[in-house]
Design goal:
The chain is of the alpha/beta class. The chain has ten helices and eight strands. It has an eight-stranded parallel beta barrel, surrounded by seven helices. Helix 1 (about 20-25) runs parallel beside helix 2, helix 5 crosses helix 7 (about 135-150) and helix 7 runs parallel beside helix 8 (about 175-200). It is globular and about 45 Å long. The structure holds phosphoenolpyruvate (PEP).
């Protein structure tokens, strides 16, 4: 049985005042079958983890370097994130793939580093609009999946986030049939590698313009184990109903 996961990606948003939103989310009653994770910018990680300590809310990061330490100015390693209180790290987000030239091979090395540091790797993938229009969405996502997964993957240390690039921050959504087709396809590819047993336990999240008013329909879609939420995770008043919608799927 896979636990549902509502994960918030704050991206490059939030200064100390935003910790009040962490406090509000930490005060929500824990839903028995739902994990809630917020990934603030690195500058807020330690303070956010302190606010969430002793509650059901967990805190994650948005990227890590593949090396544990060294001469990499401006980078942050997976052990550093864990030391700051992170329990997970988002990797391979389309904004990093586009803005920083990250390839799936880069993502695989980072995911291995995350696993070695005891972090859950949330591996993001998804097609561009052109790739979908060309009928290549399933193949593109499967290729990203195969290349991004390190050998250290297991059912609990890895989460896949299917995020069609054209749906991120745009208010546009794939149909639930398209989401179901993609999630089923990714689950089948996971059964090829790392194997059926692990594939059955890996959570596959949908991400891209999830809002309070569309969350229930997305969460009712087969093989959707939760969501990676950008804009609507910045305010507890928006994220809380999404968490509730997930909890209602039972
Ligand atoms: C994201 O950045 O991962 C994301 C899904 O953003 P949004 O929810 O704002 O589309």
């Amino acid at each position: 049985m896979r636990r549902k996961l509502a994960a918030g990606n704050w991206k490059m948003n939030g200064e100390r005042a935003a910790l009040d939103e962490i406090g509000l989310l930490a005060a929500l009653p824990a839903a028995a079958a739902v994990d809630v994770l917020v990934c603030p910018p690195a500058t807020l990680l330690a303070a956010a983890a302190e606010r969430a300590a002793g509650t059901a809310l967990t805190i994650g990061a948005q990227d890590c370097h593949h090396a544990p330490s060294g001469a990499h100015t401006g980078d942050i390693s997976a052990p550093m994130l864990a030391d700051a209180g992170a329990r997970a790290v988002i990797l391979g987000h389309s904004e990093r793939r586009a803005d920083h030239g990250e390839t799936s091979e880069t993502v695989r090395r980072k995911a291995a580093a995350a696993h070695a540091a005891g972090l859950v790797a949330i591996i993001c993938l998804g097609e561009t609009e052109t790739e979908r229009d060309q009928g290549r969405a399933l193949d593109v996502a499967a290729d990203q999946l195969a290349r991004s997964l390190p050998d250290s993957v297991d059912a609990l240390n890895t989460v896949i986030a299917y995020e069609p690039v054209w749906a991120i921050g745009t208010g546009r959504l794939p149909s639930t049939a398209q989401i179901a087709e993609m999630h089923g396809h990714l689950r089948a590819r996971l059964a090829d590698r790392p194997g059926a047993g692990i594939a059955a336990g890996i959570r596959i999240l949908y991400g891209g313009s999830v809002k309070p008013d569309n969350a229930a329909a997305i969460f009712a879609t087969p093989d959707v184990d939760g969501a990676l939420v950008g804009g609507a995770s910045l305010k507890a008043a928006d994220f809380a109903p999404i968490i509730e919608a997930l909890a209602a799927t039972g």
